[in-house]
Write a structure and sequence with these properties.
Blueprint (H helix, E strand, L loop, with lengths): L1 H14 L6 E8 L10 E4 L5 E3 L5 E6 L5 E6 L6 E5 L7 E4 L10 E2 L7 E2 L8 E3 L1 H6 L15 E7 L2 E6 L11 E4 L2 E2 L20 E8 L3 H4 L6 E7 L7 E11 L9 E14 L3 E13 L18 E4 L5 E5 L18 E2 L8 E3 L13 E3 L3 E2 H5 L4 E14 L5 E16 L3 E18 L2 E11 L1 E4 H12 L2 H11 L7 H8 L9 H11 L17 E3 L3 E10 L1 H4 L3 E12 L17 E12 L2 E2 L4 E14 L5 E12 L2 E12 L3 H5 L8 E3 L3 H6 L8 E2 H8 L5 H6 L10 E14 L3 E13 L2 E9 L12 E9 L3 E16 L2 E15 L19 E2 L3 H4 L11 E9 L6 E10 L2 E5 L4 E5 L2 E12 L4 E8 L18 E11 L2
Parallel strand pairs: 1-7, 13-16, 39-44
Antiparallel strand pairs: 1-4, 2-3, 2-5, 5-6, 8-9, 10-15, 11-12, 13-14, 15-16, 17-18, 17-54, 18-19, 19-26, 20-21, 22-25, 23-24, 26-27, 27-28, 28-29, 28-30, 29-32, 30-31, 32-33, 33-34, 34-36, 35-36, 36-37, 37-38, 38-41, 40-43, 41-42, 42-45, 43-44, 45-46, 46-47, 46-48, 48-49, 49-52, 50-51, 52-53, ...
Length: 952
């Protein structure tokens, strides 16, 4: 199909005749008759455009027939539309009026057709040149952190996960990221890689973001919303652009920081003749990552007596009772958050038997000495990222454009799943062919990636065991340890004598042996031990199209479209299990949608626009489903009221379907029956961690525990229904308001809960901690509700100053049900019905993974034109504390609230078409973490010089 589409494109190249060319010329000035350079001029309804020169003049060749309309826009000025006729096309004169607030943005994401953002039927955010230029953030992608309701979880300097409306995840597969219409996700791992393989910063034209269910038009992967990043068209943005950015981070870290980084980008675009244009992009970032260096004792429900309880009420949880002891010299169970190999629930701990000769250690759990993340990586935190793009564009007619594009991303980064995982050399290619007209598009693309990484925690355990088996280490520890006389630290020192030291030849040799051997392969010389490396070299092919029938139907706005997708998994069994015959899985999906809208005028200033959309999607492993959406917008003058109801569902990612951990090791297990079989869950059942603890406490019998064993039933899609209302207005061109309220209900929610699988298949194994921890994906029977509201305000103070801010509130509640549909009671005997998921009495019964702050807000003071050359912004961000439940080794903890002050000052040099920018995020250098176990983020300071559209 891809080859057929390319053939059609090239045939059309030769079939379209040449039309006469007209050169539109003019000049753009401000209210003081001063020339404006860099003003964008675009012919409405086309991608044909140009920008003004330093003297304000422009020249725009076109084959369009006159009359036509051109749109003139510039940051900080009100957009103007001008009609070009036969008597003025060579002498267009435009005076732009300065304005602090721009609210007449055109978006395409909400309805798949261009529309005024103020009249969109759902909540939409848009970031463009104005926001990128004024943001203190170091990149357009990072500017998302100032958008209301957005939570960015920083995995690495180059990898940040976007989260909206609860259920925050380091690898969010409920949120769809599109780059020029292409899915940004990893085909096998199932989540978007954000800016690791995104567009070069210089080539980003805009980012549109829709919080909330968007499946009615975009399919089952847009359960919590979508982000559409669009690049610059070479017909409009031409010439040579370059950016040099240098900066520093890790400031104030004793013995480590500060560390410098550099970021270089270049873009060249050119139109050749009237029909052909091309662009070339490249960006290279190198520096030192923010370091995961939280060495405090891990807070996790795997700890004994983790919850504080009320004995008078059935030991119901009242909070966290676990008190961390960060001193490994006195703490037998010290388990550092970013120390690996010492994990109490992942192969780093030993429980002495009840009859052990040293009575002070009987039934005691002792952790080994672990290694820090920096020691295991051995690269001193170095990080790099390369992004490149080449696109060829050809105008088949004045309104139809064909394009071919290659998009490339490469870099190293760390991500957090059940464990921390390091990808030393990720590579991804995307190839796209597209034909786009004013009322249709046809698109075909493929994603090809090479992603090999290794499990940091499991590698630490392997290094320890390669040097000395856990049982031998524990024996030597026990021979020295005497309670109250010889500390845990001294006993550890004795047991650690001769241990592989970080950076030594022996340490590096063993680490590399395990990190470079796949988890399906035995490492020679280590008694059957498996490697810790995995791969996802999967690929996907996607074909889609849309047609706008509005001009044909006339009585209503009607669009229809559809898509076909094919996944070819390629993990070699290291991340996703193989079929019985040893072959890899493939996944086929298809879908189609229809949307009908009609704007009805009820008076001179009152309109109502109802819209109905419906989509059908089918994945080969699940029954198909419909996702309808109904919405309406009432506009009364400058006031716009919106309301919508929409449903969505999500197909599990390939990993949630088929993942299987390495033999004998903990990790993620997919919900498919074949994954359960591969994990041995039929012959050796696993049990929810909360049920195991209830059994140990005598609250349930052994028979009851066995009856609650995980039973791989029909694994199905996750579903949501959302109701939303909102209001948007611009009053007297000074006050911009956008407010919303939503209510969502999830069913068949897919969550990877912690299950304990006994080592020998016996219930008695739990008493000696002889079990492995599995994160099993399944549809729970709970009813989950998310309620939220928020608003954004922007106010023009005069003289170019703008004060803006936003606030978002959201809370998740749950009604817990067992497999028979009965409401689960807390330990006090009360039904758990619509209670906050962060409440300890709810969390005590199992993880719910809402992971979202209830409150967050941003405040910003900006002036893009303090003078004709200087602009400045200062922003304050605050995020509430949040309850985190995460992964196999991460933990359960109240993550503290955090705040950040960001600032930038920019200086324009018009003669050289350049801007110098001095900026920083978290300029007060108050370190914080956006997730448990993630790198702690400090100040990032930079200076950049950008040259824009030289040699045009």
């Amino acid at each position: 199909m891809k080859k057929l589409l390319l053939l059609v494109i090239f045939l059309l190249f030769g079939l379209i005749g040449v039309r006469a060319q007209t050169n539109i010329e003019g000049r753009v000035t401000d209210e003081n008759d001063q020339p404006l350079a860099g003003v964008t001029i675009i012919i409405r309804g086309t991608n044909t455009g140009t920008v003004t020169q330093p003297d304000g003049h422009f020249r725009l060749p076109t084959t369009e027939s006159l009359p036509l309309t051109i749109s003139i826009s510039f940051i900080g000025y009100r957009r103007q539309d001008v009609t070009v006729r036969g008597n003025n096309f060579r002498s267009i004169s435009v005076t732009l009026t300065e304005e602090a607030i721009t609210a007449d943005e055109v978006i395409v994401s909400a309805s798949r057709v261009p529309e005024d953002i103020r009249k969109a039927s759902v909540t939409v955010e848009k970031l463009g040149a104005r926001q990128f230029q004024q943001s203190p953030a170091a990149s357009p992608f990072d500017a998302l952190q100032n958008v209301k309701g957005v939570d960015l979880l920083t995995q690495s300097l180059t990898f940040k996960s976007v989260n909206l409306r609860g259920f925050g995840a380091n690898n969010n597969n409920r949120f769809l990221q599109l780059t020029d219409g292409m899915d940004n996700r990893s085909p096998g791992l199932g989540f978007g890689f954000g800016n690791v393989a995104g567009i070069s910063d210089l080539d980003v034209e805009s980012i549109e973001l829709i919080p909330g269910a968007s499946s009615a038009l975009y399919g089952p992967d847009a359960l919590q919303g979508l982000m559409l990043t669009s690049s610059k068209n070479p017909f409009t943005y031409q010439g040579l652009s370059a950016q040099v950015k240098v900066g520093v981070n890790n400031v104030g870290k004793s013995g480590f920081g500060p560390k410098g980084y550099g970021d270089f980008a270049i873009r060249y675009a050119q139109q050749l003749g009237t029909r052909f244009a091309f662009k070339v992009n490249f960006q290279r970032l190198s520096g030192t990552d923010f370091i995961a260096d939280d060495y405090s004792d891990r807070s996790t429900r795997a700890r004994e007596n983790f919850f504080a309880t009320d004995a008078t009420r059935g030991n119901i949880a009242t909070g966290i009772g676990f008190v961390p002891n960060n001193d490994s010299n006195t703490n037998l169970q010290y388990d550092g958050v970013n120390v690996y190999g010492d994990d109490i629930n992942a192969g780093g701990a030993y429980t002495f038997p009840a009859n052990y000769g040293n009575s002070s250690l009987q039934n005691k759990l002792v952790t080994r000495t672990g290694y820090t993340e920096l020691a295991l990586l051995g690269n001193n935190g170095k990080v790099f990222n390369n992004r490149a793009n080449v696109s060829l564009h050809y105008k088949l007619s004045s309104t139809i454009e064909a394009s071919l594009g290659w998009y490339y991303g490469n870099g190293n980064f760390i991500r957090t799943a059940g464990f921390r995982e390091y990808f030393p050399d990720y590579q991804r290619h995307q190839f796209k062919a597209e034909i786009r007209g004013e009322n249709f598009f046809l698109r075909a693309y493929t994603t090809q990636q090479r992603a090999e990484g290794w499990n940091i925690g499991q590698t630490a355990v392997a290094i320890n065991n390669a040097w000395k088996p856990l049982t031998q280490w524990a024996t030597e520890f026990g021979q020295v340890y005497v309670e109250n006389k010889v500390s845990a630290g001294l006993a550890r020192n004795e047991a650690d004598r001769g241990r592989y030291l970080p950076g030594s030849t022996s340490f590096n040799l063993v680490r590399d042996l395990f990190a470079n051997a796949f988890n399906t392969d035995t490492v020679p010389g280590y008694k059957g031990a498996k490697g810790t490396r995995f791969r996802d070299n999967s690929a996907l092919w996607h074909y889609e199209g849309m047609y706008n029938f509005t001009n044909l139907v006339e009585v209503a706005e009607v669009i229809a479209g559809g898509s076909i997708r094919h996944y070819a998994l390629n993990t070699g069994g290291t991340a996703i299990t193989l079929k019985a015959d040893g072959s890899e899985y493939t996944i086929n999906e298809y879908g189609a949608y229809l949307q009908v809208a009609k704007e009805v005028k009820l008076g001179s200033s009152l309109t109502i626009k109802p819209t109905v959309a419906i989509r059908y999607d089918k994945n080969q492993y699940f029954s198909g489903g419909f996702t309808p959406r109904a919405s309406a917008v009432i506009s009364a003058g400058v006031h716009n009221f919106r309301a919508s109801w929409q449903s969505a569902f999500r197909n599990p990612s390939p990993g949630q379907l088929f993942s299987v951990p390495a033999a004998g090791k903990g990790g993620e297990v997919g919900g498919a029956r074949l994954a359960a079989e591969s994990a041995g869950l039929f012959s050796n059942p696993a049990y929810l961690d909360s049920d195991v603890k209830d059994f140990a406490a005598g609250r349930i019998t052994e028979a009851q525990l066995r009856s609650r064993a995980y039973n791989p039933a029909n694994f199905t899609t996750e579903k949501i229904k959302t109701w939303e209302v909102g209001y948007k207005t611009l009053i007297q061109n000074k006050l911009y308001i956008d407010a919303f309220y939503f209510y969502s209900k999830y069913t068949d929610f897919i969550a990877a809960q912690s299950f304990y699988q006994p080592t020998n298949g016996q219930i008695a194994d739990f008493a000696t901690n002889a079990y492995r921890t599995l994160q099993i994906n399944f549809n729970n029977f709970n009813e989950i509700f998310v309620t939220g509201s928020g608003f954004g305000l922007e106010y023009g103070l005069g003289r170019g100053f703008t004060l803006s801010g936003n606030y978002t509130y959201q809370v998740g509640t749950v009604t817990l049900r067992d497999a028979q549909g009965n409401i689960i009671k807390d330990n006090a005997g009360l039904d758990i019905v619509k209670r906050k998921m962060s409440n300890p009495e709810v969390s005590q019964k199992g993880r719910n993974f809402f992971i979202s702050p209830e409150n967050r807000y941003n405040l910003s003071l900006n002036n893009a034109r303090l003078t004709d050359r200087i602009g400045a912004t200062i922003t304050y961000r605050w995020t509430d504390r949040m309850w985190v439940e995460q992964g196999t080794t991460a933990g359960d903890v109240w993550l503290p609230s955090w705040s950040s002050v960001d600032a930038q000052v920019s200086y324009k040099v018009p003669d050289y078409k350049s801007t110098v920018k001095l900026g920083g995020t978290n300029v007060l250098n108050k370190y914080y973490a956006q997730g448990y176990g993630l790198a702690r983020i400090g100040g990032l300071y930079y200076v950049s010089v950008t040259f824009d559209e030289l040699f045009r």
